[in-house]
Each structure stands twice: as C-alpha cells, then as structure tokens.
Design a protein that fits this description.
6-stranded mixed beta sheet; about 270 residues; 8 helices; Arc Repressor Mutant, subunit A; alpha/beta; two-stranded antiparallel sheet
C-alpha cells in the first residue's frame, strides 16, 4: 500500500469510527489498514477526538487492557441538544399543525431524516452506556426514529406487531391495556426476534398514559429479557401518573387547543 498522508488518515479514522458506534477497534487494526505505526495512529486519534469535540457529534473512549482499543460514542452536548429541542418546539408550535379533535400533526417531523437523526443522536448519547442489545418499537409512526437510534447504538431493531404474519413464524402474544383509551390491545413478536437475557431499549414517538411502554415491559419478560431504557419523543402532561416511571422524554405537550388555536410544547424538564 502506498503511504497515506495525515489528512487522509484522519479522514479514514473518522469514517471508520463513526460508522461503527460502540465497536472496540484496536490500534493494531488501524496500523494494518493505514500502514502506519501505532504511535502515529495514536496521535491521529487525538486529532480525531479534538475534531469530534468541535463538531459536537460524539467522543472517543479509550478501552485499556490487552483486548482494548478505542470506540466512538455518539451524542451531543447538553447545550446543542437543548438548541435542537427548542427549534423543534418552535416548529411544532405552529397552530396550523392543530388537527380536529385536538391532535397534533407531526408526521413531517418524524419522517424527516435530518430531524430524526438529530433526535436519535440525543437518545443514543443518553442510553449508550446501558449495554443495549436491541432497540424495540411498535409498528407505528415511531419506526423511523427507532431505526435511527438503533443505527447510532449499532444494534438490531426489533418491531413488535399488532397482528401476526406468516413470515414471522411462531410468535409470542401478550395483551396490554392502553394508558389513554383503557382498551385492551395485543402485542405480537416472533420467538426468534430476541435472545434470552438481552437488554432492550424501547423507543416511541408519543406517550400519553404509558400503556404501550408497560406492554413492552411485560412482553420482554416472556422472552426473559429486560427493558433497560425507555425513550419517547413527546409525552403529554396529562395524565400526570403514567403506567411506567423510568423513562426519558424529550418534549412535553401541555396543551393543544383547537378553539383558542394554542399549542404549548416545551423541552421536558428533568428528563435530559
């Protein structure tokens, strides 16, 4: 291999690390890839760390020991996260988003790749150290967000269905009560979807009463798995008492008033 200059090494290191969040990469693997000494690679990684800090998209962690190396941890600083959420609230506060019945139109937000990636980085940074094995969501509008979070955590995405399909094979069914409508609904997941003793992160776009999240917790028990984290983009202020307690919400929807043409939505307090 021809000699690679420093600028080229920096670019390759940055791409290799950010393409594999959480994966421990040894200096030896980089010396082979870049045909450079470990001391040179170590200096280059310091430069990449400084660059990541300036870009505010994550950081590099050094893992000591014989099996150690470095790994990329995605995420934003708290200041950048709050700026993203403030901008999102400003967009969602547009009264033209009010739908009949007091609902909030947000499909354009959760299907926007740039916005979804920013939100996913916030979640990934928060839950990164929890040892997540799978990101789980329910077949609904939250799938794009859950997929993006899974990408930044570098783990598989599992989608829980409401109806079984032949391609799923044998499945596990569980019933749960919706926290808002109090209706009984069904969750279905293929028995091949999860490995036992896995740690799950449940991601959803919206939470009102918390019934879906509680249903996921019960379903996880059927697979002998643990829900190690719950992340929701928007929660409603009412009901105050949710069916789950330990969760992270990014935004809180206080009011959607069709008559007064008011939308009151703000970054969630104490959840960041």
């Amino acid at each position: 291999m021809d000699k690679i200059n420093r600028n080229e090494r920096i670019a390759l290191l940055l791409k290799r690390l950010t393409d594999s969040p959480g994966e421990i990469l040894t200096l030896g693997s980089f010396t082979e890839m870049l045909n450079s000494a470990k001391s040179t690679i170590s200096e280059d990684i310091d430069i990449v760390q400084n660059l990541l800090s300036k870009l505010d998209i994550g950081s590099i962690e050094t893992i000591p020991g014989a099996q150690g190396g470095v790994r990329f941890m995605p995420g934003f600083s708290k200041g950048k996260s709050l700026k993203i959420l403030d901008n999102l609230c400003a967009d969602l506060s547009n009264v033209q988003r009010i739908l009949p019945g007091g609902y909030l139109y947000m499909i354009d937000i959760i299907y926007n790749p740039k916005i979804v990636n920013d939100i996913a980085r916030i979640f990934a940074g928060h839950f990164f150290r929890r040892g997540i094995d799978y990101v789980v969501t329910v077949e609904t509008k939250g799938i794009p967000l859950a997929f993006a979070v899974a990408k930044y955590l570098n783990v598989p995405l599992v989608i829980v269905r409401h109806n079984s399909e032949a391609t799923d094979g044998a499945s596990v069914n569980t019933n749960y009560v919706s926290g808002s409508s109090k209706k009984i609904q069904t969750m279905i997941l293929s028995i091949r979807a999860l490995k036992k003793n896995s740690r799950l992160l449940f991601i959803d776009d919206f939470m009102k009463g918390g019934g879906t999240a509680k249903g996921i917790i019960e379903l996880a028990k059927e697979f002998e798995c643990e829900v190690a984290g719950i992340g929701v983009l928007i929660e409603t202020v009412e009901p105050l008492k949710k069916l789950v307690e330990n969760y992270m919400s990014l935004l809180t929807l206080n009011v959607v008033d069709d008559d007064e043409k008011i939308i009151d939505i703000k970054p969630s307090k104490g959840r960041m």
